[in-house]
Amino acid sequence: MKGVTFITDETHNKRFVQIDIDQLEKHQNKVEDLLDVIIAESRKDDDEISWEEVKEQLKASGKL
Predict the structure, then answer these.
(1) What's the pLDDT tens digit per position in 11-50?
(2) Which of 25, 4, 24, 30 has the alpha carbon at shortest distance from 16?
(3) Are 5 and 17 in contact (CB under 8 A)?
(4) What's the pTM?
């Protein structure tokens, strides 16, 4: 994508992404999808909680 630069470390591994703000505004949907993937990937090893447990926690905290 135009306006995207990868910044590498000393061993030439991609470490950071620099995105031009103008391009970010033009491609907002793509960036949001990318962030969703990054978040999902970062949480893949988290413990799973059943929907029933979540509902119980929300009720106990008064949010449901």
Answers:
(1) 999 999 888 888 777 877 887 888 899 899 999 999 999 9
(2) 4
(3) yes
(4) 0.48
